[in-house]
């Protein structure tokens, strides 16, 4: 009498090394093509004398690029029912 293996499990084990290689290649490609980290300059914070101040001379209004027009069914009051 011959014993047969479950075909689903055998197929998965058969292709598992290929999937592992594909995943390894994808991770390696991502790692090698990622953007370089930003270079920053660090400074130590100390107490000291204020050498200069800045004044806001550009006071004014801010205008929106786009506007939304809203209207209610009835003018004057809006009542929330509930």
Draw up the topology in text.
Elements: H1 7-33
What can you see in these coordinates?
There is one protein chain. With 82 residues, the protein is mainly α. It has a domain at 1-35. Helices cover 33% and strands 0% of the residues. It has one helix and no strands. The longest helix has 27 residues, at 7-33. It is flat. 0% of the residues are buried. The mean pLDDT is 79.
Short description:
The chain has 82 residues and is mainly α.
Helix % is 25-40%
Would you identify the regions where 5 or more consecutive residues have pLDDT less than 50? none
Q: Average pLDDT value?
A: 79
Order of helices and strands: H
Number of strand elements: 0
State the distance separating the first and last CA atoms. 75 Å
Q: What amount of the residues lies in strands?
A: under 5%
Rg (C-alpha, Å):
33 Å
Task: Based on the model shown, name its key terms.
mainly alpha
């Amino acid at each position: 009498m011959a014993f047969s293996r479950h075909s689903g499990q055998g197929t998965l084990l058969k292709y598992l090394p290929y999937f592992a290689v594909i995943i390894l290649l994808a991770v390696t490609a991502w790692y090698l093509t990622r953007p370089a980290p930003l270079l920053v300059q660090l400074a130590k914070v100390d107490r000291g004398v204020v050498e200069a101040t800045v004044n806001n001379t550009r006071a004014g209004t801010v205008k929106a690029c786009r506007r939304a027009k809203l209207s209610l069914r009835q003018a004057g009051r809006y009542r929330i029912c509930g």
